[in-house]
Amino acid sequence: MSTILALQGLKKYYQTHKAVDDISFSIEQGSIFGLLGPNGAGKTTLLRMITGIFYPDEGQVLFNGQPFNAMEHIRQIGYMPEERGLYKKMKIGEQVLYLAQLRGLSKAEATQRVKYWFEKLDMATWWNKKVEDLSKGMSQKLQFVTTVMHNPQLIILDEPFSGLDPVNANLIKDQIFELAKGGSTIIFSTHRMEQVEEICDQIVLVNLGKKILDGTVQQVRTDFKENIFELNYEGQLLPEMVATYLFQVKASKEGSLTLQKDAGTSNNELLQYFMQKGLTITGFTEVLPSLNDIFIRLVKDTHSISRNFA
Amino acid sequence: MNKIILIAQREFLTRVMKRTFLLSTILLPLIIFGFYALMIYFSINGEDAIKVAVSDKAAILKGALKSDEDVSFTIVKDTTTAQLKQLLTSKQYDAYLVLPPVNTPTEKMQIVSDKKIGIASRQRIENRVNRVLEESRLQTSLNVTTSQLDSLQQEVELEYSTIKGEKESDIGAIASNIIGYISGFLIYIVLFIYGSMVMRGVMEEKVNRIAEVVVSSVRPFQLMMGKIIGIGSVGLIQFIIWFVLVFGLQLLLPLFFPQLGEQMQQQAAAGPGMMPGGSVAASSDAISKLAEIKNSINIPLVLGAFIFYFLGGYLLYASLFAAVGSAVNEDPQDAQSLLLPITMPIIFGIVIMTKAVSDPNSGIAVFGSLFPLTSPIVMMGRIAHGVGDTGIPVWQLITSMALLIGGFIGTTWLAGKIYRVGILMYGKKPTWKELMKWAFKKV
């Protein structure tokens, strides 16, 4: 696998604060990459620099190993911004054709691609409608089509699922997987963690303009594990059984116990302890922290970073 | 470049295909023409012919009252009021006029009608009666004939010319003033109409968040230029259509109103003094005056300059309007205050133009027609006076054009910088100071 996009020491300072402060990471071709961060973390500024809308104050963006050149590389990128809109009074077919041509397709090519996608996503009847006739979810779907129809190598989706019902969200999700399988790289920017866990291979978490986390989803969750286990058992659990230095109980319900193991305790010790107490163990699994938990923890921790100029 | 054309095409087509465009472009001249035609129609066939019975006991008028198809006078023998009223009720006449039994009447005369008499007819009746009275007074008290009076009142025209031997008639000077005013004013209107059209377009794209989608595939500058060029073409097409329609319809006028020519001759003939053979003289006079206007104004020059200054001025201001549109959000009130520095020079332009029309070579007029922010308006005010020895020096025209081209490149560059920041900036409305920071800072 080769690196499609590399950011090296990107900085972008606004008049009052540092929007992006020295961020570097790279993205492998064909991966689904999650760019995470709370509102105002600098995600959009970062994406705008990747798409060449803003120039970085410092640092550079390498696209396929070459310094990013808007005129040359823009055709290889499909960007769906979070703040998105379409011409309300224009017919949908014409509008999509227009946007496709702006992205560098010839008219014939554009027509063909648009027909293909409209067919694929059940939108064939929309051609002569106007955007003002569409619901929010429908126009979201349309927006997705305009983003991917020119077969870009790099697809950047900023909050692609906001406003979509579960059926359409799944439809789009399937398309994202399919595109990634086809070799496209997808950058997926969001603050909705459950989607990231499901979709992304690699994530970067930014907050207050700085990168605070970088790795695969599995790696990150393992890194942040807190020795929490779920124990399923049969038999009577007496209160005195849990009064031990081996672990602390986080939650308990009939037949199941969530506990945090003490640092020095091994898994076998723990299991032996319960077996000696006469319980039948039916399940024992480690509970990794969700990205959501990690996210909230890290974001809280980084509140002390100053974004203002000293 | 390709993308600019693509964007311009969309801007052009969406506007031209709109129903409001068709209405305003084709209907407006038709409506103006319709009013015009209606006015002419009424002035020709304004009121029904009126038959006036004249009771002239003292025979002052001696039957000299001229009748025509609009008003006809008939001297009647009946003299008592009852008899005259009888004439009206029997519908033989529409009105009767009672002349006093004195030779030189000074008091009011009574005219009684069946229905009310319209203004135009009243005028005609009054004019004719008074003219006959005037003649008779001249004749009786001074013993002067009308032809003698005509020769007394004949005016001698002054012929104006410059030391280089070029003649310019009064009528030519007036015509170039009028043309200067009209073309300067048209440019002023163009700047406002199409400039604010650009501004509204930019605001719409920003508010609907389309800009963000589009600038991810084209440069912001391309988006701005495409919009400006697209709307400029709309304006040019609209003006050409207006021009062709107004002039085309004008030429059709005589077809609709064949009486028009006769009417003009009659009016000329009925001029004061009633020169013998006056009608022929008057019509040939009108024709020679038209020819004089044609000679004194270089029409291709004015048209060419109009198109140049139309485009140059539009391009110069449109990018500024675009910059303002990109800086504000939904609220049109915000735009108002930011627009002030843009509208000021346009209004100055109009003020200087009114002066330049009457005094095309004054210092302020020369300055105004060279300074690119006012030159489109002011130069149009001057250009009708011609270029060359008697009019504007050639170097001034060339400098003005070069400065305008330089000016619009400058404003477009500046506005492009503001635009690329503004179009993606939401929230508080910026001040001009901040806009200038955007313009000169690398983003």
Number of helical runs of chain B?
A: 16
Count the E strands of chain B. 6
**How large is the radius of gyration of chain A?**
24 Å
How confident overall, as mean pLDDT of chain A?
85
- What's the overall geometry of chain B? elongated
Q: Ends of chain A: how far apart? A: 42 Å
The succession of helices and strands of chain A, N to C, reads EEEHEEHEHHHEHEHEEHEEEHEH
Give the percentage of residues in beta strands of chain A. 25-35%
Strand order of the largest sheet of chain B: 2-1-3-4
Q: Give the spatial strand order of the biggest sheet of chain A.
A: 6-7-8-3-9-10
Helix content of chain B: 55-70%
Description:
The complex is a heterodimer of chains A (310) and B (443). Chain A is α/β, with parallel strands linked by helices and 310 residues long. Chain A has ten helices and 14 strands. In chain A, the strands form three sheets. Chain A has a six-stranded mixed beta sheet with strand order 6-7-8-3-9-10, sandwiched between helices. Chain A has a four-stranded antiparallel beta sheet with strand order 2-1-4-5, covered by helices on one side. In chain A, helix 3 (92-102) packs across helix 4. Chain B is built from 16 helices and six strands. Chain B has helices at residues 2-16, 19-45, 81-89, 119-142, 146-153, 170-207, 210-214, 220-256, 259-269, 278-296, 299-327, 332-358, 363-370, 375-383, 394-422, 432-440, and strands at 50-56, 71-75, 95-99, 110-113, 160-161, 167-168. In chain B, the strands form two sheets. Chain B has a four-stranded mixed beta sheet with strand order 2-1-3-4, sandwiched between helices. In chain B, helix 8 packs across helix 11 and helix 12 (332-358) packs across helix 13. The chains are: A alpha/beta (310), B mainly alpha (443). Chain A binds chain B through residues 15, 48, 51, 53-55, 70-71, 74-75, 77, 79-81, 83-90, 98-99, 101-104, 143, 146, and chain B through 3, 6-7, 10, 14, 208-210, 212-220, 424, 426, 437, 442-443.
